[in-house]
Amino acid sequence: MNFLHLFAPGGDRTVRYALSGAGGGFARTLLAQTLRIPRLRPAVLCDQDVAGLRAMLVELGYDASQLRICGDARAVRDAGQDGHLALVADGGLLIAGDWDILVEATGSPAAGYEMARQSLTGGRHVAMVSKEVDSVAGLHLAELARTHGSVYTTADGDQPANLIGLVSWAETLGLEIVAIGKSTEYDLVLDPAAGTVTQLDTTVPAPELVGLLDLGDDVRSTLAARAAAVAALPTGATADYCEMAVVATSTGFRPDTERLHYPVARIAELADVYALREDGGVLRRPGAVDVFSALRLPGEASFAGGVFVVVRTGDPVTWETLRGKGHVV
Prior knowledge:
Layout: E1 15-20, H1 25-34, E2 40-46, H2 50-60, E3 67-69, H3 73-81, E4 85-88, E5 101-104, H4 109-121, E6 125-128, H5 131-147, E7 152-154, H6 159-172, E8 176-183, E9 188-191, E10 196-199, E11 202-205, H7 219-229, H8 238-251, E12 254-255, E13 264-265, H9 270-273, E14 288-296, E15 307-312, H10 316-324
Parallel strand pairs: 1-2, 1-5, 2-4, 3-4, 5-6, 6-7, 8-14, 9-14, 12-14, 13-14
Antiparallel strand pairs: 8-15, 9-10, 10-11
């Protein structure tokens, strides 16, 4: 979500945000970009490692003299009044600051939920980054937001929000959506010469995968053989399930099978893999949300945990035009 859209366009108001889990990876990217975004500034940052948070901020280019470590609510309020950035270890102190929206990025269902609840019931907005919170309590938090006149939303830059936005784009264009989803965070990289496949820092022998690079006419059989070839590698991540739960709640799309299909697929195969079974694909019904393991060769582009939609237009000529432009059809 673009925080600035919460306020009247063209105005000169600065949007101030609180940030929980401020020492984490998502938080760092937000804090780095904030220095480059006019009319956006952090007001209160929360992380259990306050000293480490302060060191990170200085590394990013924040003025050390403007950073104030606060141990109680009064100190947080005073820091804001003095124009300083308050750093706290206790999430309960966030509410004492003067800010418009909480960016919740702890990844903790209990702590994240409580900070979001306090913010919404206090009439403040929440951009939820923690899929662990959203997948468990997102519906309840959205209802709290409606009751208290606040906004509860996913945050741009993470897969759930990106996929929800892609679905909205496709629906706006009137496209019939067959399936939506994302890839796992780490590709399966096949080295044909060595007969091995690598996922992150784990390499296992998979010589039979070399002969399975082409999907062929029997899609489901090829996918089953690929799955067997990489069975030594883990399949099904908690993060994936949480993210797809968030997407399902927001879009109405549902898993085609309880634990998701997780096909081992190349990027150019997605439209064939996520076709209905009567069309040779894996889906029992349209409107599915799923995750795939991206298979690629060394040097080929990574899907990088990205998101996708599979759609129909109903016009073969349009399809041929897209095919000619190199789209996956």
